Amino acid sequence: MYALGKKLRMSVFGKSHAPCVGCVLEGVPQGTEIDTEAMIQELALRKPSKGIGTDRVEKDLPHIVTGVCNGKADGNPIIIEIMNGDVDDSKYLPFMETPRPGHADLPALLELPKFDITGGGQFSGRLTAPIVAAGSIARKLLEEKGIRIGAFCRSIGPVKDVSDRTLEDAVASRKFPTRACDGKLDRKYDECIMAARADKDSVGGVVECIITGVPIGFGGIWFESLDAELAHAMFGIPACKGVEFGKGFAITEMRGSQSNDAYRFDDGRIVTRTNNMGGIVGGMADGADIVFRVAFKPTPSIGAKQDTVNLKTCQDAELEIKGRHDPCIAPRAVSVVEAVAALVLADQMERGL
């Protein structure tokens, strides 16, 4: 199992083409209400949308095996299973000899003698389904403290959302298949993804996450800092290739007089005039909205021909991938980013950071 968190600890198990995927969530306070309908809604947002997503169809209905009694956490670990139904192993067998570029096939085949390559095995994004289920429980813990989380697609391929966005905009993105903040951008994102699909190719995207209600001083320092633990967790999401907070790398082009977020009082509250730091300084929240972005690479499984090697003949080879794959995973990754952020913050909250 692969784990995230210390006090509120989530471990995932299963494989893409195993009977099920699932998670064990430990540390949920006894008596916490478990909203299964909200969990199902979050899982629905992760499902592929017609055209811009994979043709694989899974019901994604969570089955809580243990840890919940009469709709409330009973203090024991919560085990959630999600069955796999629509599987097709036949398209994956050639990759045992000709690993897919951009995937974990090559290092996994060479380092894990019993690696099950079907569906990508334990490296598959399929395992993000139970993460989203667990995240819905963590989100409930945070909302009780006034902390809210929302995310959206800041860009798809070369198409960028250049508008200033709020949590309400992020929540509004739930209405659109591409997780854009408005209908116009949704159509542009859709066109970009479908164009790549028509070329048997794929595109990447950037997911932006906004977190409100985090009190000043929330978080740890050094290796327990809030941004360090968020970044660490985000890089655990399959296909993540970058994380930045606030202005990110662009802040290097500023002077300190420009980048520093000046403080002021607003009705007795300390607020920042700007939010270049993304709401975190010294590893702790400074009272501004926490804002960060996660970069997701183009889906490596594409229909276009690619160069690879044949591990059996030890010669160069050519690969043409068949099967069902998302031409862009960023829209589906939005709900995963929200869930992972919720798990990190809820864990730090339970640890008293």
Task: Give a quick precis of the structure.
With 353 residues, this protein is an alpha+beta fold. The protein has helices spanning 36-46, 105-111, 128-143, 167-172, 183-198, 226-234, 256-259, 330-350; strands at residues 2-4, 9-14, 20-26, 63-66, 68-69, 72-73, 78-83, 148-156, 159-160, 205-212, 240-245, 263-266, 269-272, 280-281, 284-285, 290-296, 306-310, 315-319. A hairpin with a 2-residue loop joins strand 12 and strand 13.
Explain what you see:
- By secondary structure, this protein is of the alpha+beta class.
- The protein has one domain (2-347): Chorismate synthase, AroC fold (4-Layer Sandwich), CATH 3.60.150.
- The chain contains eight helices and 18 strands.
- The strands form six sheets. The protein has a five-stranded antiparallel beta sheet with strand order 1-2-3-7-4, with helices on one face. Strands 9-8-10-16-11 form a five-stranded antiparallel beta sheet.
- Strand 8 (148-156) and strand 9 (159-160) form a beta hairpin.
- The longest helix has 21 residues, at 330-350.
- It starts with a strand and ends with a helix.
